[in-house]
């Protein structure tokens, strides 16, 4: 098959093979999108790490292509979002067909002036290449080791010791924290005998990347139920970067020969029928069966699990890689704060609390999609036919058509880190991330999130309407005197030497449902921790303590 | 969920329901019922009421004996 040329990354002899035994604060197992994102996030927060990567190249096959707005916001911290947008195909909605007929178009929820689109499609290997370029720029923080397979792990007081196998021999690597980002077949999970149970969806999907000539007109996501070109099943078509198309055919369960289906002589006729083109070049094809499962605990002492190593979902909804990136986003700041002595170890327990809820949500949502797509019994098929038949004329039925509920940022509604939520009728509640709005009328001046969540600081947004506000100034000084890791930004009118965010049109205040004197506390991952209608020194200080895990109960019942 | 009479004309409704199935074979009639369930569910709207109605509809209905034996294993 023509197409992408896989780069080959060399093995470099680490100091351990020459008798040295440095200890690492964080060892990341696996250099896929999740491991690399975590390494980059730690580096941005001043924390170095070592990444052990078994492979010598990027993801085999393009796999994940749809990267969500929230993933772009996270990757933007490392300068990776812009190259992804330049090379990829951006989209904000899609079309759904029943047979030959379009039954509806949908648009994904998004503020019109936000920095990023709902999605960019870029093949996983190119996304990883861009992450690797950012890693290379941070080589003093990130020690990325290719062809280094973790094949042993033992827990010790104060951390874990990994065993790493390389082309030039094996070595031990002690680390205070280990993060397993080693994918669905996680070695770390096996070494720790952690069960990974759930549900297998009895269905096969042929997934391929193709080039067509003449090219098709670009379009947003297209999904077919029971198309004429593939009777009785579903099909999906997506554009990616470099003019590539992703096609996806549901094949059914009984009597499907997965090996035979991905052979070009079998796959190409299906693809030609879908695209209405004879000249189709196959870049990659594979046949998948999908599952929904997660491990029970995302934290096992010093070992954390993130991405596919921790949870797996079917890809309709693009919730696999995107939720893994959110895992990394959730864990990065917590590790950095604990390692720098600004937060107790108990903060790390909230990783499980927040991200296991996210995993459950993704499993529930993708399972519903898969159940709709794979109408297993005559009754289910009939109910689906009923929905599809009504959808064209009746808006309510469109809401029942489920071709994938696309990934959005998880809102940590019930997080133990959430504090007060004082009298807001709109805006992001505690647990939610905030909209990435332009910082001024001129978008080249940057966006709101550009300056928030940097380093290991929480952010306080104080909505200030008065140019002289001595009372607020005194309170902000008292909050700063508590010596918590905090950055203060006044929105509207500047105060003292605090950061200032102008808001001449009131756009930002509206997005936050803020009035003069409203206060938002944001965590380093840009999710809201608490919000108040008035600036109250004690409450803000308590809110920061809570957001940093100081109020969390430890397993032994004492507070941290 | 309402259990007390709420239909303005019960006999009229039943007659209309039967008439709607007129001339349809069993498969198509089943599809009509499915579409009707969806349309009516949208009139109700409230998931709690719908769940109660689903439970009431299911009440006393058992899987056929063969399936029962299979799940009991
Ligand atoms: C067909 C398909 C389509 C998909 N589409 C989407 C999509 O559109 N959007 C989306 O968000 N997600 C999608 N996904 C899911 C997405 O690909 C995964 O969720 C994502 O790759 C998970 O990233 P990860 O870093 O956790 O694991 P992986 O990408 O699997 O990376 C694991 C890494 O660990 C390394 N490794 C493994 N074992 C060891 C070891 N013992 N020691 C050291 N290193 C090791 C591997 O070399 C690899 O680099 C799709 C998946 C498939 C299969």
Name the descriptors.
heterodimer; A: alpha/beta; Glutaredoxin; 3 domains; eight-stranded mixed beta sheet; seven-stranded mixed beta sheet; 14 helices; B: 73 residues; mainly alpha; 4 helices; disordered C terminus; binds flavin-adenine dinucleotide
Largest sheet of chain B: none
**Uncertain parts of chain B:** 69-73
Question: Helical content of chain A, roughly?
Answer: 25-40%
| Global shape of chain A | globular
Please compute the radius of gyration of chain B using only Cα atoms.
Answer: 16 Å
The total number of structural domains of chain A is 3
Question: How many extended strands of chain B?
Answer: 0
Q: What bound compounds does this protein have?
A: flavin-adenine dinucleotide
In CATH, the topology of the largest domain in chain A is named FAD/NAD(P)-binding domain
The pair of chains with the biggest contact is: A-B, 11 and 8 residues
Structure description:
The complex is a heterodimer of chains A (560) and B (73). In chain A, a hairpin with a 2-residue loop joins strand 5 and strand 6 (101-107). Chain A has helices at residues 33-44, 69-76, 81-87, 124-136, 187-191, 258-261, 264-275, 320-339, 349-373, 378-391, 395-398, 470-481, 507-511, 537-547, and strands spanning 24-29, 49-52, 66-68, 89-91, 93-98, 101-107, 119-121, 142-145, 149-156, 159-166, 169-180, 197-200, 204-213, 221-225, 234-239, 245-252, 279-288, 291-294, 299-300, 303-305, 311-312, 458-464, 486-492, 499-501, 519-522, 528-532. In chain A, 27% of the residues lie in helices and 26% in strands. Chain A is α/β, with parallel strands linked by helices. Chain A has 3 domains: 23-90 and 117-198 and 292-365, FAD/NAD(P)-binding domain (3-Layer(bba) Sandwich); 204-289, Alpha-Beta Plaits, CATH 3.30.70.2450; 443-547, 3-Layer(aba) Sandwich (Glutaredoxin). In chain A, the strands form 5 sheets. In chain A, strands 1, 2, 8, 9, 10, 11, 19 and 20 form an 8-stranded mixed β-sheet that branches. Chain B has 73 residues and is mainly α. Chain B has 4 helices and no strands. Chain B starts with 9 loop residues before the first helix and ends with a helix. Classes of the chains: A alpha/beta (560), B mainly alpha (73). The interface between A and B is small, with 11 and 8 residues. The complex binds flavin-adenine dinucleotide.
């Amino acid at each position: 098959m023509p197409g992408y040329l896989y780069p080959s990354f060399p093995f470099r002899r680490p100091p351990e093979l020459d008798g040295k035994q440095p200890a690492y604060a964080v060892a990341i197992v696996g250099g896929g999108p999740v491991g690399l994102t975590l390494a980059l996030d730690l580096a941005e927060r001043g924390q170095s790490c070592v990444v052990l990567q078994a492979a010598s190249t990027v993801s085999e096959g393009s796999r994940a292509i749809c990267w969500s707005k929230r993933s772009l916001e996270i990757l933007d911290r490392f300068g990776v979002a812009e190259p992804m947008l330049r090379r990829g195909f951006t989209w904000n909605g899609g079309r759904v067909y029943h047979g030959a007929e379009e039954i509806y178009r949908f648009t994904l929820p998004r503020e019109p002036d936000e920095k990023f689109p709902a999605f960019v499609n870029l093949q996983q290997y190119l996304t990883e290449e861009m992450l690797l370029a950012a890693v290379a720029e941070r080589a003093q923080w990130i020690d990325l080791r290719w062809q280094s397979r973790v094949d042993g792990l033992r827990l010790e007081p104060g951390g874990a010791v990994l065993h790493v196998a390389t082309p030039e021999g094996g070595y031990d690597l002690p680390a205070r924290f280990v993060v397993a980002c080693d994918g669905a077949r996680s070695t770390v999970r096996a070494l720790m005998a952690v069960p990974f149970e759930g549900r297998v969806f009895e269905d096969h999907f042929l997934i391929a990347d193709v080039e067509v000539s003449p090219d098709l007109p670009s379009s947003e996501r297209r999904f077919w139920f029971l198309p004429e070109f593939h009777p009785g099943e579903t099909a999906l078509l997506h554009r990616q970067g470099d003019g590539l198309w992703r096609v996806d055919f549901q094949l059914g369960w009984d009597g499907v020969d997965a090996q035979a289906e991905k052979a070009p002589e079998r796959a190409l006729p299906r693809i030609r029928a879908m695209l209405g083109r004879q000249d189709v070049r196959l870049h990659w094809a594979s046949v998948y069966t999908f599952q929904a499962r997660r491990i029970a605990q995302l934290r096992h002492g010093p070992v954390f699990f993130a991405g596919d190593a921790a949870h797996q979902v079917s890809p309709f909804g693009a919730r696999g890689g995107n939720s893994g990136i959110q895992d990394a986003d959730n864990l990065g700041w917590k590790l950095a704060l604990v390692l720098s002595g600004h937060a107790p170890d108990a903060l790390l327990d909230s990783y499980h609390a927040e991200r296991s809820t996210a995993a459950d949500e993704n499993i529930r949502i993708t399972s519903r999609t898969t159940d709709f797509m794979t109408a297993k019994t005559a009754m289910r098929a009939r109910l689906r036919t009923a929905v599809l038949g009504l959808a064209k004329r009746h808006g309510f039925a469109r809401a029942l058509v489920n071709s994938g509920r696309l990934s959005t940022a998880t809102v940590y509604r019930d997080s133990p880190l959430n504090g007060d939520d004082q009298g807001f009728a709109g805006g992001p509640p505690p647990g939610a991330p905030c909209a990435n709005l332009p910082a001024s009328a001129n978008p080249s001046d940057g966006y709101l999130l550009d300056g928030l969540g940097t380093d290991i600081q929480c952010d306080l947004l104080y909505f200030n309407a008065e140019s002289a506000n001595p009372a607020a100034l005194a309170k902000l000084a008292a909050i700063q005197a508590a010596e918590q890791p905090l950055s203060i930004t006044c929105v509207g009118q500047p105060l003292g030497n605090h950061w200032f965010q102008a808001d001449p049109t009131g756009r930002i205040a509206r997005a936050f449902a803020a009035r003069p004197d409203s206060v938002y506390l944001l965590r380093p991952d840009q999710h809201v921790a608490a919000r108040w209608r008035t600036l109250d020194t004690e409450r803000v200080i308590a809110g920061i303590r809570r957001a940093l895990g100081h109020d969390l109960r430890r397993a032994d019942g004492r507070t941290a | 969920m309402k259990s007390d009479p709420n239909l303005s004309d019960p006999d009229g409704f039943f007659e209309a329901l039967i008439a709607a199935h007129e001339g349809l074979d069993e498969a198509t009639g089943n599809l009509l019922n499915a579409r009707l369930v969806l349309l009516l569910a949208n009139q109700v709207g409230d998931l709690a009421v719908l769940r109660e109605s689903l439970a009431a509809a299911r009440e006393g209905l058992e899987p056929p004996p063969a399936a029962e034996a299979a799940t009991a294993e």
